[in-house]
């Protein structure tokens, strides 16, 4: 599969005459009955963002592609522009220049976005007085998603046993799990996750790693930002490294760490970013 994706993944655009049952609606950013895996691509093209009053560009001419079937780790020192890039991809802030596309479309033009893109940006968002289950049921109802799927994502995120507890009593790690459960609710082919490992204990990190690997193995596109180098070395296939809004590297974990193995990622990262 990877050879096929590598050969065609970044060149195809929605609307291409693939074997999709309804390519016409696909070009319109509607979801075809079966989304061709080669089109689940996240594309950032010459993306630039200067915040009003900002002294420098938060994102500066950034270009990269995250492809299906892989976990793409999005790395960079504090303030590098990772969250800004993810917010641009989700249409939460406007680019100063360039494009941030999913399936060839800006997020705002995607039909049924919850079923197309699962996002975890921060661990807040759930009403503290609600239980995890009620929060997810409410989200599911507003997007026409079944209660059975709620139970499924609660299990996937390791929250089944605390599903009926109020979110107010949740630890940071439990809130992160709830955020991940919400991101998975629509069974989306594309996932954008901003530091999902924050606050997770060792068991939580392992389970997150296994979940992300599995999601990628199912052919989904997983873009995940993180400061946890050891985790990224074990989780990611591809690494996109930025600093001061600019691309420093876009390489496989193997290319990054060489023969030294996953333990060498932190060293390579610090060397590349000048230990910022
Ligand atoms: N709403 C905003 N208004 C003005 N400047 C902002 C805003 N959000 C972020 N910035 C600035 O943009 C730059 C990039 O920030 P961003 O949060 O995207 O980086 P990051 O790589 O996610 O950092 P971290 O790893 O610390 O979360 C920083 O200089 C930050 O101060």
TrEMBL record:
MF terms (GO), sorted A to Z: ATP binding; ATP hydrolysis activity
Entry keyword Nucleotide-binding: yes
SMART domains: AAA (SM00382)
Protein name in UniProt: ATP-binding cassette domain-containing protein
Keyword hit for Nucleotide-binding: yes
Signal peptide stretch: none
Similarity comment text for this entry: Belongs to the ABC transporter superfamily.
């Amino acid at each position: 599969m990877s050879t096929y994706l590598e050969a065609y993944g970044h060149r195809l655009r929605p609307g291409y005459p693939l074997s999709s049952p309804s390519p016409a609606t696909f070009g319109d950013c509607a979801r075809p009955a079966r989304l061709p895996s080669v089109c689940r691509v996240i594309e950032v093209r010459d993306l630039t963002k200067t915040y009003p009053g900002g002294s420098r560009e938060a994102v500066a001419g950034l270009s990269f592609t995250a492809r299906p079937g892989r976990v793409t780790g999005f790395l960079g020192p504090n303030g590098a522009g990772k969250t800004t890039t993810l917010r641009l991809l989700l249409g939460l802030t406007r680019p100063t220049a360039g494009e941030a596309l999913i399936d060839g479309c800006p997020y705002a033009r995607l039909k049924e976005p919850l079923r197309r893109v699962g996002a975890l940006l921060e661990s807040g968002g759930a009403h503290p007085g609600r239980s995890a289950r009620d929060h997810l049921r409410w989200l599911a109802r507003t997007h026409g998603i079944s209660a059975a799927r709620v139970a499924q994502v609660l299990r996937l995120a390791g929250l089944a046993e605390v599903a009926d507890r109020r979110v107010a009593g949740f630890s940071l790690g439990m809130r992160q799990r709830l955020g991940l459960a919400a991101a998975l609710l629509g069974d989306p082919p594309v996932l954008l996750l901003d530091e999902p490992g924050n606050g997770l204990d060792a068991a939580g990190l392992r389970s997150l790693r296994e979940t992300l690997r599995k999601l990628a193995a199912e052919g989904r596109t997983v873009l995940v930002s993180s400061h946890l180098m050891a985790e990224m070395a074990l989780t990611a296939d591809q690494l996109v490294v930025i600093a001061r809004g600019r691309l420093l590297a876009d390489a496989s974990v193997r290319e990054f760490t060489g023969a030294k193995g996953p333990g060498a990622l932190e060293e390579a990262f610090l060397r590349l970013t000048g230990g910022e």
